[in-house]
Amino acid sequence: MKKAASAFLALIMVFVMLPSTILANQQTLEASDPNLVFRVDNQQIYNNNYTNLNDKVDALKGLEEGTIIVRFRYSGTSIMSLFSLSNSTMANGHFHLYVTPSAIGSENRLEAPGQTAVNTHVKADVAVRQNEVHTVAMAVDKNQGYKYFLDGKLVKTDTASARKFLSNVYEPNSSQLGRTERKGGSNTYPFNGEIDFAEVYGKPLADQELLAITGVTNTNPVQNPLPDGALITEPYSVFYPGLYSSNAYRIPALLQTEAGTLLAGIDKRINHGGDSPANIDMLVRRSLDNGKTWEESGILINNYPGNASNIDQSLLQDLETKRIFSLVLGFPDGGGFPTSVKGSGFKTVNGKRYMILKDQNNNEFTVRENGEVYDSANAKTTYVVDQKRNLSNNGVVVSHIFLPSSPLKPIRTSYLELWHSDDEGLTWEGPVDMNPGLKEDWMAFLGAGPGTGIQLTEGTHAGRLVYPVYFTNENGAQASAVIYSDDHGATWHRGESPNEGRIVNGFTLNERTFTGNEITESQVVEMPDGQLKLFMRNYSGYAQIATSFDGGETWDSEVVTERGLPAAYCQMTAIRYNGQIDGKEAVIFASPGSSSSRINGTVKVGLIVENGTYSNGRTKYAFDWKYSQLVKEGHYAYSSLANLANGEIGLFYEGTGSEQMSFIKFNESYLKWQRQGSSPEAKVKSIALEAPKPGGYALHDKLRIKMAFDHYMLLSGDKSLKGTIGDAAVVFQLASQNTSSTEFIFEAEFPELSPGAYTLSAGFGPNLKAYNAYGNALNAQASANKLQTQVVSKAAEAQGAATQLTGAAKAASGEPFQIQFGLKNVTQSVYAQDITVLYNPAVMDFTSAKSLMDGVNLIETETSEPGKVRFILASVGAGNAVTGAAELLELSFKAKEASAAVTGTITVSSAVLGDELGAEAQAAPSAHSIEITPAPVGIVGDINGDGKVSVGDLAIVAAHYGKDSTSPDWQQIKQADTNKDSKIDIEDLAAIAKIILE
Q1: Residues 42, 48, 54, 55, CA torsion sign
Q2: How far apart are CA 915 and CA 105, in angstroms?
Q3: What local confidence, expressed as pLDDT, does residue 795 receive?
Q4: Tell me, what's the pLDDT at 934?
Q5: Which domains does the chain have, with CATH numbers?
Q6: pLDDT tens-digit series, residues 762-813
Q7: Is the distance from CB of 437 to CB of 493 less than 8 angstroms?
Q8: Per-residue confidence at 609, pLDDT binned at 50, 70, 90?
Q9: Is residue 176's pLDDT more than 60?
Q10: Among the listed ranges 18-27, 48-57, 724-733, which one has the minimum average pLDDT value?
């Protein structure tokens, strides 16, 4: 324990000793840290541009371990390279650190002569909001593995993947920010946005250091409180890697039975998360308490041997018989969507459809009644195939027909299968081959639309079971459809695709021959009069909806692109809500919330509204997508909705690529929650001259402007302030900033000006943009975000008499303060003075003035113009002339209330001096800057600081009764002056007493 404490203390000391400013000089940085290979700042990368780092290749290519840090702000939805090292003569010889809206990661692709191509891909599934500012760090330790940090959090640790860094790239010749250079310019992963800085180090930096650096851009979620009555549960991982000896899971299906059993169906993807061809089994897991808990054991619907597979489950219950159906797709070993050949896999013999099998010599056989196998001469063989597709010869099981080693094998195509359970999903029977009568020989593929089917409750087809499916036509184009049963699942029929007779740009499509306009996986919802709405995946970036008036047998010629439902090319889920929302029937819809990426799972409420009639007289239904709720930030793909008890809704979704399959439930109030609050606007906390020179500036003196913000700020572009001093243009260049990027120092040289006081104005130029960590841009034109103050050119000092202002550099908000006016370098005898003083009326009020020199009287004070006061002074008699140097007036001001620090300037703009002969002379002007600091936040009347207002505070006021701002201890007891009138009297006692009684 003692050792750990010492190590922690040493680490803290390292951070204490880190420099507080970030320098712009690359050589200085590299000299301060020999492990820094390079740093690049302030890059704007748009429209396929990039930053060329080819001069860094030699320094990078030997690194076996190290750290990459990038601070950036992006827009886009694809994979974008932040930093890359590549061999541009090869398509797959590169390393790049990348970002997407739902991940950060790296690819390290080895392509070299005589070596097997390998891609070491490590990523963290994490939300990376576009337009906000983020800091990512990747540390590679050749002994310990990978660590990824994002905005102050360690988001990924990988000790299993091969430890590869930049030395893994074969003969690299290109390094870039914002792009990966590859052979032929293919798929360069262009970045779009700003890179504040990028660094590469030759060693893995410590976790605490990377947490501190990346934490600069950490932001807290900005959301409104969850309203009373709103329900949202924490995500529960129903399936995850390692559960039931499977490496991955995908394709959720969720069904609540009439008896209240909640079934979560899934693809159990044994070896990896990819589609068929692969070893994939069909599985369900049950909950008996509305999703609160889940049974420990999963239930296998089917487990084909080897790499034969079942994939893409859809669940449905017949509410009359209570039978539960699972519609799945079966593939022989090696079969999958890309390898499936045309054909149903069945042939007609004597008017009946039988499965085709072939031997190694391509001789054809058919599986007849009771699984008996007949040869092409219609002779019965010794082979028998059972319902689970096991092959027996003379009563001995010899293989499985879906295995490549089987002596008899089916055609390698897709086989739609139907399974059923009559005991709430505990046991399952099947499969029933669905291809006969449903799959045409011109189809290579016919599969389920994963999720759920429905049973119709309204109209002439009430009781019909309807399952969404999709198929490929003879041109390989995908088409949605439904299959239906009017006899409780005994027989099934396929309806036409919505692409049969669909009119697109005046052209009528045919489901068998169309190309383009593909519609694929879908979910079906019944309308109040029995119409069907089919919500279909497609390439438009939005859900498309087809309408059927006859229970899915045919479809209206118009397919609606629903602009209220942005949807990436991904499965979507939709259900009819059990109940009403805002007094209307409703549809609940869920999908990725992006038109182009599988990110940001969003649930929408569509109120069903009547919108006229069709030409056949049927009601035309439309959807008012009134409510929308983000339920999963970052990666989000396939999902399935279900109505639960008490009006609650369940959602089973892919929150990661093929790892966590999560369940949540929520209610109507949650969907109506206005979650998003207002993020903090970008604004300047303070802007002022740093260490101003009240006595004035000489030519080439340094002027420094300090600009401070409440939170992190990204400056992008021309990092300078544009300003003027009088009529002289001045450019203030960024000189330094602190490590948290909340304070920036800009520096310029004082220009050549005639003696006198001048207005200094400075602000952002047109080519400098500023964003806070939330991505909100600074309004550079707002007056509060600019500096306007007075400065003095002191070149006149050598020419004789000059004015001077002295006093405190700071004053508290709402408090009085004094400034002394005087003269210096006076060589004549001055008997009269006409003095004009300017000040910032928005920062302070002038209250009074008094003479500080015996024999010199303040005759008149003029305050008719805000921000300007004029004094007339005269000496009384020959012995009271002013000469040399003297303090003449005390000027009293009161600072205005300020919530943030602000700087004001008091300037002597004119000083006319008169001698005994009546001759007049000008004294050089002068200025004094004062910072008004906000009052500490506390309780009004809490004089003793004990967190309450009580008789103790009243006693302090009483003890100092009668004192005022001239009292020697005023600074210590002025907090007793509750009304800020520079005296402690009966009004202050009464104010404290009133607060005590409240």
Answers
A1: negative
A2: 80
A3: 52
A4: 86
A5: 22-217 (2.60.120.200), 233-340+415-675 (2.120.10.10), 346-410 (2.40.220.10), 699-791 (2.60.40), 800-933 (2.60.40.680), 951-997 (no CATH)
A6: 999 999 999 999 999 999 989 889 999 988 887 544 468 999 999 988 898 9
A7: yes
A8: very high
A9: yes
A10: 18-27
Q: What does the DSSP assignment read for 293-356?
A: S--SS-EEEE--STT-EEEEEEEEE-TTT--EEEEEEEE-TT-STTTPPSS-SEEEETTEEEEE
The Cα 585–Cα 596 span in angstroms is 30
- For residue 431, is the peptide bond before it cis, meaning its omega torsion is within 30 degrees of 0? yes
Least confident of 602-616, 645-659, 956-970: 956-970
0.90 exceeded by pTM: no
Helix (H) or strand (E) holding 711: none
What number of other Cβ atoms are within 10 A of residue 964's Cβ?
13
Those residues whose C-beta lies under 8 Å from the C-beta of residue 26, and which sit 6 or more positions away, are: 38, 39
The helix (run of H) or strand (run of E) holding residue 417 is: strand 415-421
Which residue do the tokens 């159990």 mark? 268
Q: Which residues are catalytic?
A: 275, 758
Pairing of strands 684-689, 639-643: unpaired
Segment (H or E) for 90: none
Burial call 290-316: b when 16+ CB within 10 Å, e when fewer: bbeebeeebbebbebeebbbbbbbbbb
What is the maximal distance between C-alpha atoms in the chain? 145
Distance CA 911, CA 871 (A): 10
- Token pair for residue 389? 């597709």
pLDDT category of residue 69 using cuts at 50, 70 and 90: very high
| pLDDT more than 90, % of the chain | 82
Is the per-residue pLDDT at 684 higher than 50? yes
Q: List the one residue out of 121, 73, 76, 75 whose CA is nearest residue 96.
A: 121
Torsion angle in degrees (nearest 10) through CA of 648, 654, 655, 660: 100
* Residue 938: per-residue pLDDT: 64
- What pLDDT does 937 receive? 60
Locate 897 and state its tokens.
Answer: 């209330």
Pairwise CA distance, residues 83 & 121, whole Å: 15
- pLDDT greater than 70 at residue 4: no
- Say yes or no to pLDDT of 430 above 80: yes
Of 368, 366, 363, which Cα lies nearest the Cα of 345?
366
- In 711-809, alpha helices (H): none
pLDDT for residue 13 is more than 50: no
Written as six digits, the tokens of 990 are 């009464």
* pLDDT of the residue at 32: 64
Mapped onto helix, strand or coil, the DSSP state of residue 130 is coil
Instruction: Provide the pLDDT for residue 798.
Output: 45
Letter for the amino acid at 29? L
Q: Which residue from 330, 275, 329 is spatially nearest to 305, judged by alpha carbons? A: 330
pLDDT per position as a tens digit, 95-118? 999 999 989 999 999 999 999 999
Residue burial 81-107, b: 16+ Cβ < 10 Å; e: rest: bbbbbbbbebeebbbbbbbbbbbbbbb
Using an 8 Å Cβ cutoff, are 552 and 484 in contact?
A: yes
Query: Nearest to residue 905, comparing CAs of 875, 932, 941, 934?
Result: 932
pLDDT at 496 over 70: yes
DSSP classification of residue 34: T
> What sign for the dihedral angle of Cα 235, 241, 245, 250?
positive
pLDDT, position 82? 98
Closest CA to 640 of 214, 239, 305, 64: 239
CA distance 754 to 775: 44
What are the two backbone dihedrals, phi and then psi, of residue 581, each rounded to the nearest 5 degrees? -125, 125
Crossing angle (nearest 10°) for helices 2-16 and 207-214: 40
